[in-house]
């Protein structure tokens, strides 16, 4: 296989969670451009369909479906419906910022862990079965540099803990499934320009921390994360499993 062919996903099917906007939507576009048939899922079926229609308008092979990742039953049902998924991208996630740990409600803790960690595991568990049977498949989890460092000055212990757990879960599943042909990797992005961070643009102090604290002097874009996901999903990364790839503009160097 020549080098550029290794990046192509022609004939493959990829499923993305939380794909209606932000990093998830950019990832759907990247995978579709590489030739994959993409199943764009999100917890809101209508926004999933609107985003899928936009990508179809660009000539891509994209279908939409509704998936709330915190429901292990719903995840299992969807894995039965789409029984030939080659690439799974676990992107759905939320953040709750500026929540001091000592006064954090049960609900804030549980909601973040339930989506970022439990939901991601339900998807890995359900979609791995068909991959393990075929002895082929690639799972890419969206972690965060917050899984390595405590980002400043937000107080979000639940988010940092959830992403650190995603990284170690990625490595655990990679070790279990590598002998059976399934690769599991993660991307750990810096601050990305998405709706998740919309609250920061009006906060000059926080922007100073984020941008000034990054050697590249800027936030990242969703397409820059999607490009790393595409690489990990593809055969170009055939030797990689259990890798947590930082895409952080150098933030964790300082
Ligand atoms: P956005 O908030 O822009 O998009 C997240 C998408 O996931 C939304 O469409 C959202 O739906 C969906 N979603 C949320 N909860 C669920 C759920 N329970 N089931 C299914 N879908 C759900 O986020 P980003 O694109 O910024 O983030 C994507 C991933 O990247 C997350 O895992 C995040 O933690 C991670 N990340 C983001 C960074 C950043 O700076 N933005 C940095 C590092 C990592 P709805 O519209 O209904 O909310």
Could you characterize the architecture of this molecule?
- With 254 residues, the chain is of the alpha/beta class.
- The chain has a single domain, classed as 3-Layer(aba) Sandwich (Rossmann fold), CATH 3.40.50.720.
- It is 42% helix and 15% strand.
- It has seven helices and seven strands; from the N terminus they run βαβαβαβαβαβααβ.
- The chain has helices at residues 22-33, 45-57, 72-81, 106-134, 157-177, 204-212, 222-233; strands at residues 13-16, 37-42, 62-66, 87-90, 137-142, 182-189, 244-247.
- A seven-stranded parallel beta sheet has the order 3-2-1-4-5-6-7, sandwiched between helices.
- It starts with 12 loop residues before the first strand and ends in a 7-residue tail after the last strand.
- The site of NADPH dihydro-nicotinamide-adenine-dinucleotide phosphate has 30 residues, from helix 1 and helix 4.
For the record, the CATH class is Alpha Beta
Bound small molecules, deduplicated: NADPH dihydro-nicotinamide-adenine-dinucleotide phosphate
Count of discrete domains: 1
Termini gap = 39 Å
Strand content: 5-15%
Spatial strand order of the main sheet: 3-2-1-4-5-6-7
CATH superfamily: NAD(P)-binding Rossmann-like Domain
Question: CATH architecture, please?
Answer: 3-Layer(aba) Sandwich
Instruction: Report the average pLDDT across residues.
Output: 97
Which spans have pLDDT < 50 for at least 5 consecutive residues?
A: none
- How many helices? The count is 7
Question: CATH fold name, please?
Answer: Rossmann fold
Helix and strand succession?
EHEHEHEHEHEHHE
């Amino acid at each position: 296989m020549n080098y550029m062919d290794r990046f192509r996903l022609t004939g493959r099917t990829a499923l993305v969670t939380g794909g209606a906007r932000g990093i998830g939507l950019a990832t759907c576009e990247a995978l579709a451009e590489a030739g994959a048939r993409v199943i764009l899922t999100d917890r809101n079926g209508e926004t999933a369909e609107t985003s899928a229609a936009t990508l179809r308008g660009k000539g891509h092979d994209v279908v939409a479906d509704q998936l709330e990742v915190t429901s292990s039953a719903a995840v299992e049902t969807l894995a039965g419906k789409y029984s030939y998924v080659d690439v799974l991208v676990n992107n759905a996630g939320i953040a709750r910022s500026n929540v001091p740990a000592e006064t954090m409600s049960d609900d804030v803790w549980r909601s973040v862990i339930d989506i970022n960690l439990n939901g991601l595991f339900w998807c890995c568990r359900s979609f791995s079965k068909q991959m393990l049977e075929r002895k082929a498949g690639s799972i890419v989890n969206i972690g965060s540099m917050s899984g390595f460092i405590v980002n400043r000055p937000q107080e979000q212990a639940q988010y940092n803990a959830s992403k650190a757990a995603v990284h170690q879960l990625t490595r655990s599943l990679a070790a279990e499934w590598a002998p059976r042909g399934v690769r599991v990797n993660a991307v750990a992005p810096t601050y990305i320009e998405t709706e998740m961070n919309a609250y920061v643009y009006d906060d000059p102090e926080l922007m100073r921390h984020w941008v000034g604290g990054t050697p590249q002097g800027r936030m990242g874009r969703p397409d820059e994360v999607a490009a790393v996901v595409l690489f990990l999903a593809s055969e170009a990364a055939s030797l990689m499993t259990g890798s947590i790839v930082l895409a952080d503009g150098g933030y964790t160097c300082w």
